[in-house]
Amino acid sequence: MSFWKIFFKNTSDMNWQTNIELENTENILLVKHLENEGQYLDIYFSIDDDINLYDLEKLCDSVGWVRRPLKKVKMAIDHSFLTICLFYKSCQKKNLIGFARVTSDNSFNATIWDVVIHPKFQGKGLGKVLMDQVIKQLRYSDISTITLFADPQVVSFYRNLGFITDPDGVKGMFWYPL
Ligand SMILES: CC(C)(COP(=O)(O)OP(=O)(O)OC[C@H]1O[C@@H](n2cnc3c(N)ncnc32)[C@H](O)[C@@H]1OP(=O)(O)O)[C@@H](O)C(=O)NCCC(=O)NCCS
Predict the structure, then answer these.
(1) Pfam families per the record (predicted)?
(2) Which tens digits make up the pLDDT trace of 96-107?
């Protein structure tokens, strides 16, 4: 699989709302009455690393990602700077429909990983609002260099959000064990 390394250009004309703090962001209503298969659902987000790993695995399965050992996924989440979940509630249960996480040096740089929206909820603007929240939280933490690795088929999704490839000729490079 090939990847593109993409950087987020920090444009000063963007109006960042910094009213949502990194702490204390559980179950914030993000989209009210989202139409989905004849139902109207309220979509919430939370910043929380207490994630049901089986729900996350199901979400990743739904977009055809290769399964990863849950123990390693838990370790990755535990060591992430930020994890954001999108979900709707039914019968007191949270139904996970979107996810993204970020690693960071907590100061200058952050890299976004595992951006996913359940296929039944794609094309409704949720990927964009999820990414907007991720960027908002990182800007709130005064992190200005935000990178990610985009599959070729989603490069334009990220471009629309302000990400750019190869600024000043910078190339993403990889080392894999043989
Ligand atoms: C990529 C993904 C997160 C987008 O989520 P989404 O909820 O469908 O996206 P949105 O509805 O918010 O779309 C926002 C904009 O991006 C565009 N867009 C959405 N998916 C796109 C894609 N794959 N390629 C190009 N543009 C895309 C939409 O047309 C929309 O454009 P508009 O604002 O001009 O109308 C989602 O399709 C997904 O989970 N894909 C599978 C997992 C994946 O590939 N993740 C990325 C790994 S790098």
Answers:
(1) Acetyltransf_10
(2) 999 999 999 999
* Domain residue spans of the chain: 23-144
Ligand 1 pocket check: which of 4, 63, 85, 128 to mutate, most ligand atoms within 8 Å of Cβ?
128
pTM: 0.90
Is CATH 3.40.630.30 the right assignment for the domain spanning 23-144?
A: yes
5 touches 165 (CB < 8 A): yes
Q: Is the CB of 117 under 6 A from ligand 1?
A: yes
With the C-alpha atoms ordered 103, 7, 4, 54, is the resulting torsion angle positive or negative? positive
